[in-house]
Design a protein that fits this description.
The complex is a heterodimer of chains A (about 180) and B (about 280). In chain A, about 25% of the residues lie in helices and about 25% in strands. Chain A has about 180 residues and is of the alpha+beta class. Chain A has a domain at about 65-175. The longest helix of chain A has 21 residues, at about 5-25. The radius of gyration of chain B is 21 Å and the shape is elongated. In chain B, helix 11 (about 190-200) packs parallel to helix 13. The chains are: A alpha+beta (about 180), B mainly alpha (about 280). Chains A and B meet through strand 3, strand 6 and strand 7 of A and helix 4, helix 5, helix 6 and helix 7 of B.
Protein backbone atom coordinates (compact mmCIF):
# COMPACT_ATOMS: atom_id res chain seq x y z
CA UNK A 1 0.00 0.00 0.00
CA UNK A 2 1.31 3.40 -0.98
CA UNK A 3 1.89 5.74 2.01
CA UNK A 4 -0.47 8.71 2.00
CA UNK A 5 1.27 12.04 1.64
CA UNK A 6 -0.20 14.71 3.90
CA UNK A 7 2.05 17.45 2.52
CA UNK A 8 -0.45 18.93 -0.01
CA UNK A 9 -3.14 18.96 2.69
CA UNK A 10 -0.85 20.76 5.18
CA UNK A 11 0.14 23.34 2.54
CA UNK A 12 -3.52 23.91 1.73
CA UNK A 13 -4.45 24.39 5.40
CA UNK A 14 -1.54 26.78 5.99
CA UNK A 15 -2.55 28.81 2.93
CA UNK A 16 -6.14 29.07 4.15
CA UNK A 17 -5.20 29.99 7.71
CA UNK A 18 -2.76 32.69 6.53
CA UNK A 19 -5.42 34.13 4.22
CA UNK A 20 -8.02 34.05 7.02
CA UNK A 21 -5.61 35.84 9.35
CA UNK A 22 -4.89 38.57 6.80
CA UNK A 23 -8.61 38.97 6.14
CA UNK A 24 -9.27 39.29 9.87
CA UNK A 25 -6.64 42.03 10.19
CA UNK A 26 -8.06 43.86 7.19
CA UNK A 27 -11.59 43.79 8.66
CA UNK A 28 -10.50 44.88 12.10
CA UNK A 29 -11.36 48.52 12.56
CA UNK A 30 -10.36 49.77 16.00
CA UNK A 31 -13.30 51.47 17.73
CA UNK A 32 -11.04 54.08 19.19
CA UNK A 33 -8.26 56.42 18.27
CA UNK A 34 -6.93 58.67 21.00
CA UNK A 35 -7.28 62.30 19.84
CA UNK A 36 -4.22 64.37 20.69
CA UNK A 37 -4.92 68.11 20.90
CA UNK A 38 -2.19 70.49 22.01
CA UNK A 39 -4.36 73.57 22.46
CA UNK A 40 -7.45 74.47 24.47
CA UNK A 41 -10.26 72.29 23.11
CA UNK A 42 -12.55 75.30 22.64
CA UNK A 43 -10.07 76.88 20.22
CA UNK A 44 -10.12 76.21 16.47
CA UNK A 45 -6.68 76.86 14.90
CA UNK A 46 -6.37 79.00 11.77
CA UNK A 47 -6.34 77.08 8.46
CA UNK A 48 -5.22 79.23 5.50
CA UNK A 49 -7.23 77.04 3.12
CA UNK A 50 -10.49 77.59 5.02
CA UNK A 51 -10.32 80.75 7.08
CA UNK A 52 -10.42 84.50 6.68
CA UNK A 53 -7.04 85.82 7.94
CA UNK A 54 -8.78 88.96 9.22
CA UNK A 55 -10.71 86.93 11.78
CA UNK A 56 -8.55 86.98 14.91
CA UNK A 57 -8.98 85.48 18.35
CA UNK A 58 -7.85 87.69 21.25
CA UNK A 59 -7.02 84.90 23.74
CA UNK A 60 -7.19 81.27 22.63
CA UNK A 61 -6.98 80.05 26.24
CA UNK A 62 -10.08 81.83 27.52
CA UNK A 63 -12.79 80.82 25.06
CA UNK A 64 -16.12 80.00 26.71
CA UNK A 65 -17.84 76.89 25.48
CA UNK A 66 -21.04 76.40 27.48
CA UNK A 67 -24.00 75.22 25.43
CA UNK A 68 -25.98 78.43 25.93
CA UNK A 69 -23.24 81.00 26.38
CA UNK A 70 -23.60 82.31 22.84
CA UNK A 71 -27.27 82.54 21.98
CA UNK A 72 -29.33 83.29 18.92
CA UNK A 73 -30.98 86.65 19.59
CA UNK A 74 -34.36 85.49 18.31
CA UNK A 75 -34.34 82.35 20.48
CA UNK A 76 -33.73 78.63 20.07
CA UNK A 77 -36.91 77.83 18.16
CA UNK A 78 -36.23 80.59 15.61
CA UNK A 79 -32.65 79.34 15.28
CA UNK A 80 -34.02 75.90 14.46
CA UNK A 81 -36.58 77.21 11.96
CA UNK A 82 -34.03 79.57 10.33
CA UNK A 83 -31.67 76.64 9.75
CA UNK A 84 -34.39 74.36 8.39
CA UNK A 85 -35.78 77.06 6.05
CA UNK A 86 -32.32 77.82 4.60
CA UNK A 87 -31.41 74.15 4.10
CA UNK A 88 -32.13 72.88 0.57
CA UNK A 89 -32.56 69.09 0.50
CA UNK A 90 -31.37 67.45 -2.71
CA UNK A 91 -31.85 63.96 -4.11
CA UNK A 92 -28.09 63.37 -3.83
CA UNK A 93 -28.39 63.73 -0.03
CA UNK A 94 -31.12 61.10 0.40
CA UNK A 95 -28.77 58.20 1.13
CA UNK A 96 -27.41 59.96 4.21
CA UNK A 97 -28.58 59.22 7.75
CA UNK A 98 -26.41 60.67 10.49
CA UNK A 99 -25.13 64.02 11.70
CA UNK A 100 -23.46 67.10 10.33
CA UNK A 101 -21.86 68.97 13.24
CA UNK A 102 -20.86 72.57 12.61
CA UNK A 103 -18.50 74.33 15.00
CA UNK A 104 -17.38 77.95 14.95
CA UNK A 105 -15.90 80.72 17.08
CA UNK A 106 -17.17 84.17 18.06
CA UNK A 107 -14.28 86.53 18.80
CA UNK A 108 -13.78 89.53 21.09
CA UNK A 109 -14.94 91.89 18.31
CA UNK A 110 -18.26 90.10 17.99
CA UNK A 111 -17.34 88.48 14.65
CA UNK A 112 -17.81 84.80 13.84
CA UNK A 113 -15.36 82.60 11.96
CA UNK A 114 -13.28 79.40 11.79
CA UNK A 115 -16.33 77.36 10.75
CA UNK A 116 -15.77 73.59 10.65
CA UNK A 117 -18.12 70.78 9.64
CA UNK A 118 -17.91 67.06 10.39
CA UNK A 119 -20.09 64.20 9.14
CA UNK A 120 -20.89 61.37 11.53
CA UNK A 121 -22.81 58.11 11.61
CA UNK A 122 -25.51 57.70 14.25
CA UNK A 123 -22.95 56.05 16.54
CA UNK A 124 -20.80 59.22 16.17
CA UNK A 125 -18.10 57.46 14.13
CA UNK A 126 -16.78 59.56 11.19
CA UNK A 127 -18.86 59.34 8.00
CA UNK A 128 -18.60 60.53 4.43
CA UNK A 129 -21.58 62.73 3.59
CA UNK A 130 -22.68 62.59 -0.06
CA UNK A 131 -22.14 65.36 -2.60
CA UNK A 132 -21.85 68.85 -1.09
CA UNK A 133 -24.11 68.13 1.93
CA UNK A 134 -21.42 68.96 4.49
CA UNK A 135 -20.45 72.19 2.73
CA UNK A 136 -24.09 73.22 2.25
CA UNK A 137 -24.87 72.63 5.96
CA UNK A 138 -21.81 74.69 6.90
CA UNK A 139 -22.87 77.54 4.63
CA UNK A 140 -26.36 77.53 6.15
CA UNK A 141 -24.87 78.10 9.61
CA UNK A 142 -22.33 80.63 8.27
CA UNK A 143 -25.28 82.64 6.95
CA UNK A 144 -26.71 83.16 10.45
CA UNK A 145 -25.51 86.37 12.05
CA UNK A 146 -27.96 87.12 14.78
CA UNK A 147 -25.83 86.00 17.76
CA UNK A 148 -25.93 87.57 21.20
CA UNK A 149 -24.01 87.23 24.41
CA UNK A 150 -27.10 86.81 26.51
CA UNK A 151 -25.40 85.33 29.54
CA UNK A 152 -22.10 87.21 29.50
CA UNK A 153 -21.48 90.65 30.96
CA UNK A 154 -17.95 90.88 29.54
CA UNK A 155 -18.31 92.51 26.11
CA UNK A 156 -14.96 91.08 24.95
CA UNK A 157 -15.74 87.47 25.82
CA UNK A 158 -15.04 84.86 23.14
CA UNK A 159 -17.01 81.71 22.49
CA UNK A 160 -16.99 78.39 20.73
CA UNK A 161 -20.36 77.15 19.53
CA UNK A 162 -21.59 74.01 17.84
CA UNK A 163 -24.83 73.09 16.12
CA UNK A 164 -25.65 69.47 15.38
CA UNK A 165 -27.93 68.71 12.44
CA UNK A 166 -29.49 65.26 12.66
CA UNK A 167 -30.09 64.19 9.06
CA UNK A 168 -32.65 61.56 8.09
CA UNK A 169 -32.84 60.49 4.45
CA UNK A 170 -31.01 63.67 3.45
CA UNK A 171 -33.33 66.06 5.29
CA UNK A 172 -32.92 67.81 8.64
CA UNK A 173 -34.73 65.65 11.18
CA UNK A 174 -33.76 67.80 14.16
CA UNK A 175 -31.43 70.64 15.08
CA UNK A 176 -29.72 69.58 18.31
CA UNK A 177 -28.65 72.64 20.31
CA UNK B 1 -27.83 78.74 62.34
CA UNK B 2 -31.58 79.23 62.75
CA UNK B 3 -31.65 80.84 59.29
CA UNK B 4 -29.81 77.87 57.80
CA UNK B 5 -32.23 75.40 59.40
CA UNK B 6 -35.20 77.42 58.10
CA UNK B 7 -33.66 77.51 54.60
CA UNK B 8 -33.06 73.74 54.70
CA UNK B 9 -36.66 73.16 55.81
CA UNK B 10 -38.08 75.40 53.08
CA UNK B 11 -35.81 73.92 50.43
CA UNK B 12 -35.84 70.33 51.62
CA UNK B 13 -35.44 68.88 48.10
CA UNK B 14 -32.44 71.05 47.41
CA UNK B 15 -30.96 70.10 50.79
CA UNK B 16 -31.45 66.38 50.17
CA UNK B 17 -29.94 66.72 46.71
CA UNK B 18 -26.89 68.49 48.11
CA UNK B 19 -26.51 65.85 50.82
CA UNK B 20 -26.86 62.87 48.52
CA UNK B 21 -25.15 64.26 45.42
CA UNK B 22 -21.73 62.87 46.38
CA UNK B 23 -23.25 59.39 46.66
CA UNK B 24 -25.24 59.55 43.44
CA UNK B 25 -22.80 61.16 41.05
CA UNK B 26 -19.85 59.40 39.53
CA UNK B 27 -17.12 60.85 41.70
CA UNK B 28 -13.38 60.85 41.73
CA UNK B 29 -11.36 57.68 41.82
CA UNK B 30 -9.31 56.29 44.68
CA UNK B 31 -5.74 55.80 43.44
CA UNK B 32 -4.72 53.79 46.52
CA UNK B 33 -6.52 50.69 45.25
CA UNK B 34 -3.79 50.27 42.60
CA UNK B 35 -0.30 48.88 43.30
CA UNK B 36 2.13 51.68 44.08
CA UNK B 37 4.39 51.28 41.05
CA UNK B 38 1.71 50.17 38.60
CA UNK B 39 0.82 52.03 35.42
CA UNK B 40 -2.75 52.39 36.68
CA UNK B 41 -1.59 54.08 39.90
CA UNK B 42 0.57 56.60 38.01
CA UNK B 43 -2.21 57.16 35.45
CA UNK B 44 -4.69 57.70 38.28
CA UNK B 45 -2.49 60.28 39.98
CA UNK B 46 -1.85 62.08 36.69
CA UNK B 47 -5.60 62.13 36.00
CA UNK B 48 -6.30 63.66 39.40
CA UNK B 49 -3.75 66.34 38.58
CA UNK B 50 -5.42 66.86 35.18
CA UNK B 51 -8.82 67.66 36.69
CA UNK B 52 -7.25 70.45 38.75
CA UNK B 53 -7.01 72.38 35.47
CA UNK B 54 -9.96 73.82 33.56
CA UNK B 55 -11.84 71.10 31.70
CA UNK B 56 -10.65 70.98 28.09
CA UNK B 57 -7.62 73.19 28.74
CA UNK B 58 -4.25 72.36 27.19
CA UNK B 59 -2.69 71.39 30.53
CA UNK B 60 -5.57 69.12 31.38
CA UNK B 61 -5.43 67.36 27.99
CA UNK B 62 -1.64 66.88 28.12
CA UNK B 63 -1.86 65.25 31.57
CA UNK B 64 -4.61 62.88 30.43
CA UNK B 65 -2.51 61.96 27.38
CA UNK B 66 0.40 61.15 29.67
CA UNK B 67 -1.90 59.14 31.95
CA UNK B 68 -3.16 57.07 29.00
CA UNK B 69 0.41 56.51 27.83
CA UNK B 70 1.66 55.15 31.18
CA UNK B 71 -1.53 53.35 32.22
CA UNK B 72 -3.45 52.31 29.11
CA UNK B 73 -5.78 50.10 31.18
CA UNK B 74 -6.91 52.94 33.44
CA UNK B 75 -10.44 53.59 32.15
CA UNK B 76 -11.22 56.76 34.10
CA UNK B 77 -8.58 58.75 32.14
CA UNK B 78 -10.33 57.98 28.82
CA UNK B 79 -13.70 58.89 30.32
CA UNK B 80 -12.54 62.18 31.84
CA UNK B 81 -10.66 63.12 28.68
CA UNK B 82 -13.80 62.45 26.61
CA UNK B 83 -16.05 64.86 28.55
CA UNK B 84 -14.86 68.20 27.07
CA UNK B 85 -14.86 66.72 23.55
CA UNK B 86 -18.55 65.82 23.85
CA UNK B 87 -19.36 69.22 25.37
CA UNK B 88 -17.75 71.03 22.43
CA UNK B 89 -19.42 69.05 19.65
CA UNK B 90 -16.32 66.94 18.93
CA UNK B 91 -18.49 63.84 19.06
CA UNK B 92 -16.29 61.51 16.98
CA UNK B 93 -13.32 62.21 19.25
CA UNK B 94 -15.45 61.94 22.39
CA UNK B 95 -16.98 58.62 21.42
CA UNK B 96 -13.60 57.24 20.41
CA UNK B 97 -12.37 57.86 23.95
CA UNK B 98 -15.47 56.59 25.74
CA UNK B 99 -15.46 53.46 23.53
CA UNK B 100 -12.09 52.59 25.02
CA UNK B 101 -13.31 53.24 28.58
CA UNK B 102 -16.32 50.99 27.88
CA UNK B 103 -14.10 48.22 26.50
CA UNK B 104 -12.18 48.30 29.78
CA UNK B 105 -15.09 48.80 32.22
CA UNK B 106 -18.48 48.52 30.49
CA UNK B 107 -20.51 48.61 33.69
CA UNK B 108 -18.99 51.95 34.70
CA UNK B 109 -19.12 53.84 31.40
CA UNK B 110 -21.95 52.58 29.19
CA UNK B 111 -24.27 55.11 30.82
CA UNK B 112 -22.15 58.03 29.63
CA UNK B 113 -22.16 57.07 25.96
CA UNK B 114 -25.88 56.30 26.22
CA UNK B 115 -26.52 59.78 27.65
CA UNK B 116 -24.91 61.47 24.63
CA UNK B 117 -26.74 59.19 22.22
CA UNK B 118 -30.02 60.14 23.92
CA UNK B 119 -29.24 63.85 23.90
CA UNK B 120 -28.49 63.71 20.16
CA UNK B 121 -31.58 61.57 19.48
CA UNK B 122 -29.68 58.47 18.44
CA UNK B 123 -32.24 56.40 20.30
CA UNK B 124 -31.38 52.94 18.92
CA UNK B 125 -27.78 53.24 20.12
CA UNK B 126 -28.93 54.66 23.47
CA UNK B 127 -31.27 51.69 23.96
CA UNK B 128 -28.56 49.22 22.96
CA UNK B 129 -26.14 50.61 25.56
CA UNK B 130 -28.65 50.84 28.40
CA UNK B 131 -30.16 47.41 27.72
CA UNK B 132 -26.62 46.05 28.02
CA UNK B 133 -26.01 48.04 31.21
CA UNK B 134 -29.12 46.76 32.99
CA UNK B 135 -29.72 43.31 31.50
CA UNK B 136 -26.14 42.08 30.94
CA UNK B 137 -24.24 43.94 33.65
CA UNK B 138 -27.18 44.10 36.10
CA UNK B 139 -26.48 47.70 37.11
CA UNK B 140 -28.56 48.65 40.13
CA UNK B 141 -28.54 52.46 40.07
CA UNK B 142 -26.81 54.99 37.79
CA UNK B 143 -27.72 58.64 37.48
CA UNK B 144 -27.44 60.89 34.44
CA UNK B 145 -24.13 62.83 34.34
CA UNK B 146 -25.90 65.87 35.78
CA UNK B 147 -27.63 63.81 38.49
CA UNK B 148 -31.15 64.70 37.28
CA UNK B 149 -32.53 61.15 37.12
CA UNK B 150 -31.69 57.48 37.03
CA UNK B 151 -30.67 56.23 33.59
CA UNK B 152 -33.67 53.87 33.35
CA UNK B 153 -35.79 56.99 32.86
CA UNK B 154 -33.58 57.88 29.89
CA UNK B 155 -34.07 54.32 28.59
CA UNK B 156 -37.83 54.66 29.08
CA UNK B 157 -37.91 57.95 27.12
CA UNK B 158 -35.68 56.49 24.38
CA UNK B 159 -38.10 53.59 23.93
CA UNK B 160 -41.04 56.01 23.83
CA UNK B 161 -39.29 58.16 21.21
CA UNK B 162 -38.70 55.00 19.15
CA UNK B 163 -42.42 54.22 19.18
CA UNK B 164 -42.23 51.52 21.86
CA UNK B 165 -44.07 53.42 24.59
CA UNK B 166 -45.25 50.28 26.39
CA UNK B 167 -41.67 49.07 26.76
CA UNK B 168 -40.71 52.52 28.05
CA UNK B 169 -43.45 52.32 30.67
CA UNK B 170 -42.18 48.89 31.76
CA UNK B 171 -38.67 50.28 32.34
CA UNK B 172 -39.99 53.34 34.18
CA UNK B 173 -42.15 51.15 36.42
CA UNK B 174 -39.23 48.79 36.94
CA UNK B 175 -37.32 51.75 38.36
CA UNK B 176 -40.25 53.10 40.38
CA UNK B 177 -40.65 49.64 42.00
CA UNK B 178 -37.18 49.97 43.51
CA UNK B 179 -38.30 53.12 45.36
CA UNK B 180 -40.69 51.10 47.53
CA UNK B 181 -37.69 50.01 49.60
CA UNK B 182 -35.49 53.03 48.84
CA UNK B 183 -37.82 56.05 48.68
CA UNK B 184 -34.92 58.48 49.20
CA UNK B 185 -33.65 57.60 45.70
CA UNK B 186 -36.77 58.84 43.93
CA UNK B 187 -35.86 61.43 41.28
CA UNK B 188 -37.17 64.93 40.78
CA UNK B 189 -38.79 64.15 37.42
CA UNK B 190 -39.77 60.46 37.62
CA UNK B 191 -43.53 60.85 38.13
CA UNK B 192 -43.63 63.42 35.35
CA UNK B 193 -41.90 61.13 32.85
CA UNK B 194 -44.08 58.12 33.72
CA UNK B 195 -47.15 60.38 33.47
CA UNK B 196 -46.15 61.56 29.99
CA UNK B 197 -45.56 57.97 28.86
CA UNK B 198 -49.02 56.95 30.12
CA UNK B 199 -50.47 59.94 28.26
CA UNK B 200 -48.73 58.87 25.03
CA UNK B 201 -50.05 55.37 25.63
CA UNK B 202 -53.67 56.64 25.78
CA UNK B 203 -54.08 55.99 29.51
CA UNK B 204 -55.12 59.50 30.67
CA UNK B 205 -56.31 58.53 34.16
CA UNK B 206 -53.00 56.86 35.04
CA UNK B 207 -51.18 59.75 33.40
CA UNK B 208 -53.07 62.32 35.47
CA UNK B 209 -52.40 60.37 38.68
CA UNK B 210 -48.64 60.38 38.01
CA UNK B 211 -48.62 64.06 37.00
CA UNK B 212 -50.50 65.02 40.17
CA UNK B 213 -47.91 63.07 42.19
CA UNK B 214 -45.23 64.99 40.33
CA UNK B 215 -46.71 68.27 41.57
CA UNK B 216 -46.27 66.99 45.14
CA UNK B 217 -42.60 66.14 44.51
CA UNK B 218 -41.58 69.10 42.35
CA UNK B 219 -44.14 71.55 41.00
CA UNK B 220 -41.72 73.77 39.09
CA UNK B 221 -41.97 72.03 35.71
CA UNK B 222 -43.91 73.85 33.03
CA UNK B 223 -44.21 70.51 31.25
CA UNK B 224 -46.26 68.86 34.02
CA UNK B 225 -48.90 71.59 33.93
CA UNK B 226 -48.95 71.46 30.13
CA UNK B 227 -49.75 67.72 30.07
CA UNK B 228 -52.35 68.11 32.85
CA UNK B 229 -53.86 70.83 30.68
CA UNK B 230 -54.00 68.49 27.68
CA UNK B 231 -55.65 65.70 29.73
CA UNK B 232 -58.26 68.07 31.18
CA UNK B 233 -58.95 69.57 27.76
CA UNK B 234 -59.59 66.09 26.35
CA UNK B 235 -61.83 65.46 29.38
CA UNK B 236 -63.79 68.57 28.34
CA UNK B 237 -62.86 70.28 31.59
CA UNK B 238 -61.78 73.43 29.80
CA UNK B 239 -61.68 75.61 32.94
CA UNK B 240 -59.15 73.36 34.67
CA UNK B 241 -57.30 72.88 31.39
CA UNK B 242 -56.88 76.65 31.01
CA UNK B 243 -55.69 76.94 34.60
CA UNK B 244 -52.96 74.40 33.91
CA UNK B 245 -51.96 76.01 30.58
CA UNK B 246 -51.70 79.40 32.31
CA UNK B 247 -49.65 77.81 35.06
CA UNK B 248 -47.44 76.13 32.42
CA UNK B 249 -46.87 79.52 30.76
CA UNK B 250 -45.98 81.15 34.08
CA UNK B 251 -43.56 78.33 34.92
CA UNK B 252 -41.91 78.59 31.53
CA UNK B 253 -41.35 82.31 32.28
CA UNK B 254 -39.60 81.25 35.50
CA UNK B 255 -42.33 81.81 38.11
CA UNK B 256 -41.24 80.30 41.43
CA UNK B 257 -38.16 78.71 39.87
CA UNK B 258 -40.22 77.30 37.01
CA UNK B 259 -38.55 75.85 33.94
CA UNK B 260 -38.56 73.07 31.35
CA UNK B 261 -35.45 70.91 31.82
CA UNK B 262 -33.25 70.25 28.78
CA UNK B 263 -32.91 66.65 29.92
CA UNK B 264 -36.33 65.91 28.42
CA UNK B 265 -34.88 66.47 24.92
CA UNK B 266 -37.63 65.37 22.59
CA UNK B 267 -40.35 65.79 25.20
CA UNK B 268 -39.75 69.44 26.12
CA UNK B 269 -42.73 71.75 25.98
CA UNK B 270 -42.06 74.98 24.06
CA UNK B 271 -43.54 78.46 24.37
CA UNK B 272 -45.36 77.87 21.06
CA UNK B 273 -46.91 74.65 22.39
CA UNK B 274 -48.40 76.49 25.36
CA UNK B 275 -49.34 79.64 23.44
CA UNK B 276 -51.38 77.47 21.10
CA UNK B 277 -53.50 76.33 24.03
CA UNK B 278 -54.13 79.66 25.74
Amino acid sequence: MRPVSYLPLIILLLTFSTFACLQSQANHQPKYKIPIVTHDLSYIPFDPLLDDPNFQICDSTKISSGRNRLQYAAGRNTLRSDIVSRFSPQSAYESFNGYIVIRFLANCKGQTGRYRAASLHLDFSPAQAPSNLEQHAKEVVMGLNNWSRATETNANAEYSKFINLKIKNGKIDHVVL
Amino acid sequence: MARLITWCYKNHWMTLTLLFAPLLLHGQVNCLIYDAASGERIACELSLRAIQYRQGSRNSQLLFDKAIEVGPKFAWAYYEKSVPFFKRGLLAEGVSLINKAIDLEPKNYLYYRAYWYFYNRSYAHCIEDLEELYTVHHESFTNTPGGEMEMRMILAMAYAQSGEVEKGIEWAQHLMDTYKEQPHLKGQYDHHILGVLYYLNNRPLMAAAQLEKQLEVNARLADTHYYLGLINRENTNSTLAQLHFKKAWAKLQGEGGGHSPNIFEGFNVSAQDIEGML
